[in-house]
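Please complete every field before forwarding. Incomplete forms are returned to the sender.

SECTION A: IDENTIFIERS
Entry label: holo-264
Bound molecule: S-adenosylmethionine
Molecule representation: SMILES string

SECTION B: INPUTS
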Amino acid sequence: MWLTLLYSCSGGAALLYILYRWVIPSIVQYHAGLALMWHDVIVERLLDVLTRSTRPQRLLAAVQKNATRGDPRSVVKAIDEFCRYTEWAMNVGDEKGCILDSVVSEVNPATVLELGTYCGYSTVRIATLLPPDAKLITLEFNPDFAVIARQVIAWAGQEEKVHLVEGSSGDLIPKMKEQFGVKSFDLVFLDHWKDRYLPDAKLMEECGLLGKGSVLLADNVICPGSPDYLDYVRNSPKYRSQYFKSHLEYTKVEDGLEKSVFLG
Ligand SMILES: C[S@@+](CC[C@H](N)C(=O)[O-])C[C@H]1O[C@@H](n2cnc3c(N)ncnc32)[C@H](O)[C@@H]1O
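SECTION C: PREDICTED COMPLEX
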């Protein structure tokens, strides 16, 4: 009888593991709401409780274990592998990351502003492509994420090029000229909370931080989506805007980046 009980318990545990590891992820990867609910709410909370750590801490541990110190490509690769095979996270990801890389290379910016650092994944991607004298300012209002991002950026050897500022975009954008000595930004990567894209774009215009030819690149314009921002940059005579179709990070749900050139 004990043997039967043991067999049923281990059979049940194996079934649960298969569901958690393969079946549910492969079903939800085609559906935006289900994918975000599964990865960003259920799995994250479950693993936080079971491991007594946070997702950013687990991501950092994966970097320290699998990436070579001072090699940014290995840091990006370690994060992508962690997020594809172990635990999803809200970085721009490998697929949209290639679009980000190509825009950074095309613009060849001397000054970059990133809104939303999280663990520093996109920061490392951008910093790697910048010339040595370029300036990259990245804003993050969650101090727990900022602590992790600093370590990820340092592990990638990019800390000299990056200025991570803790605080909210709405408070910091008006201080960019005075406190950070920036005249205008050649490139802005918008990847913070989606309801801030439009007010922050308008705030950057008001503060004179966008010059003729400045490029705004916005992530997640389809999923979770930022319809008011899209409507603005696509219909305003101040911008020439273009959509780059892709997928939500590490899934097959449609998402994309919007590149908008400020025409002055
Ligand atoms: C999608 S994640 C950024 C991912 C990151 N760009 C990457 O690809 O690796 C969004 C981040 O923006 C931060 N955030 C959201 N609203 C913000 C705001 N108004 N000011 C500063 N940070 C913000 C969140 O705490 C979160 O870490």
